[in-house]
Design a protein that fits this description.
five-stranded mixed beta sheet; alpha+beta
């Protein structure tokens, strides 16, 4: 493993995914794509499977990570990990019911604004 590779484990409330090795040049978007591809089909995490990489939010050091951020820029936030150190990044999956909520709010806005109408 080269010195520029970073081992990352993804932690969810239902369990962990990984660790996986990523080059320091990888973007957060690349991490999300890999996480989506490696998401377990069985076990407690299977019920939380996101539909797309955009449904995943990654958290490091209490801050949401921007999709365009490169891992090399996050080394200090990771504690400048050595080659054999596994870094934990927390994940939050956007609930799939969010789309239904926006449809309901659109329907409510189309209704009359007063109780008489």
């Amino acid at each position: 493993m080269s010195q520029t590779a970073i081992l990352i484990r993804f932690r969810h409330t239902q369990g962990d995914v990984g660790p996986f090795s990523f080059p320091a040049s990888a973007t957060v978007h690349g991490l999300k794509e890999r996480l989506l591809a490696e998401w377990p089909a069985e076990g407690p995490l299977s019920s939380e499977r996101p539909n797309a990489a955009a449904d995943l939010k990654l958290i490091l050091g209490g801050k949401f990570l921007d999709v365009n951020t490169v891992l090399a820029d996050l080394r200090a936030a990771m504690g400048d990990p050595q080659a054999d150190t596994v870094v934990t990044i927390h994940i939050v999956v956007r609930p799939q019911t969010a789309a239904k909520a926006t449809v309901k709010s659109e329907e409510a806005s189309k209704q009359a604004c007063c109780s008489i109408c």
